[in-house]
């Protein structure tokens, strides 16, 4: 098969107004629209995230991108090819890690890598791949005896064994402990650094924020936000917050007076309230400066100053108007 | 775009003779298959064990069949049981080993996993058909050789007929096994359905009531069942005194022609 020719600036994946409705599970049931309207473009060499709660349509979207599922409408181009018309065209160049583990219980790590490698015209060096995924010590272990994290890493290795240009990774840290998650994040960054474009599906806000160069937030089968994680967070409306802690009640009392006065006359500061043994001051981007100057002028020295972190979760709340629950699985109306 | 809804992955049904890695897949699957002691026992050892157990333990099976036409009147009684054992070998692989394998591949998502690679999942089924044929050759071969060497069973009168019936039995029974696996959601449900067909099949192929003393009405029913026709056809070929088993050959061919396309059509890849 000829390698798809592509100039570096052209999008690696282009999805336009994708739509997919599943037929009713039972006679008389209602059909379920998993994807109502999803569009995005993935640029070469980036980690692109598809973020949203469970049931938002993320997996259906990437399965359509991978040509594993027929869309009802919209367009999909991967490496300049249309996987909806002929999925075989992209198989050589797109590595896919599916959500569920899928190997024989008794196949060893090395055997799995070798046999999957044999399907591709170009194949990655097994030893290097084992090393990259920290599986060298487990290469002769059977699949059923691997830990969750090891299975997950093998699954990623199998997605990379054919030297893909694009890797689709679906919920790859679900069920992993925090240490394994962090290790997997580092790994995904190394994969990207090796030149592979990564399409990352996740319902973890922190994961998307940490890893993705750009992302779309999907909710109810539609894109509700798009951009870089920092731009999305920067774009948040509303106040920022600063938390201050003082060693003794005297200092805290004086600080409350100073900061309440500040909130009254400074436009950049909207409020100051005591929360437990801390004081939370809210305001515009300049709130921290204003607080520090006011405290310095009054010679009140806080023990600890923290800015209230704003995350993609706040972005989700703002664009959907409801709290983010990763595990929600609501029926999406057509 | 006006793509039509399909229940199979888009790659399924699209075979372009892509065979890169087929040999490697076959070798690896064979190696992994051999690590499953239960499957290996039932596929390879069980028929011969049953044959030797009966042949060595039951006196009636050791005594010559004095009522038979010469030269068979000098052959031990177990001789009439050997064709049934060969049919049992075919039935065991097709109805117990194979459907469970295929349904498990689907249950574990192995078929779907393969459909993300350049290797079509159909080839995994193909590879396992090959492995099961190899297992059958070993299983039936060992049974026949032990019968001749250990139990003193005379060689087949018409080996070509035996081989023809064996090949047709295999195609008919593998097609049945494929159909059992086609829609079973789990390995366990495939196993249950397989067993439901396996035990009556064994009855009509003479495992419990040997063909030599089976009542005519049972033989008449057995003729129309794949495993019954198999045992009867193999018996005709081994003894060579009933003429060519045309009815049995036609029945086996008919089952293959009906069951195989049905199994392929109904097979769920996801």
Explain what you see:
The complex is a heterodimer of chains A (334) and B (270). By secondary structure, chain A is an alpha/beta fold. Among the domains of chain A are: 151 residues, P-loop containing nucleotide triphosphate hydrolases (Rossmann fold, 3-Layer(aba) Sandwich); 68 residues, YebC, transcriptional regulation domain (Alpha-Beta Plaits), CATH 3.30.70. Chain A contains 11 helices and 13 strands. Chain A has a 6-stranded mixed beta sheet, sandwiched between helices. A 4-stranded antiparallel beta sheet of chain A has the order 11-12-10-13. In chain A, α9 packs across α10. The relative contact order of chain A is 0.14. Chain B is mainly alpha-helical and 270 residues long. Chain B has one domain. In chain B, 69% of the residues lie in helices and 0% in strands. In chain B, α4 packs antiparallel against α6 and α4 packs parallel to α7. Chain B is elongated and about 65 Å long. The two termini of chain B are 24 Å apart. The N terminus of chain B is likely disordered. The chains are: A alpha/beta (334), B mainly alpha (270). Chains A and B meet through β4, β5 and α3 of A and α1 and α5 of B.
In short:
The complex is a heterodimer of chains A (about 325) and B (about 270). With about 325 residues, chain A is α/β, with parallel strands linked by helices.
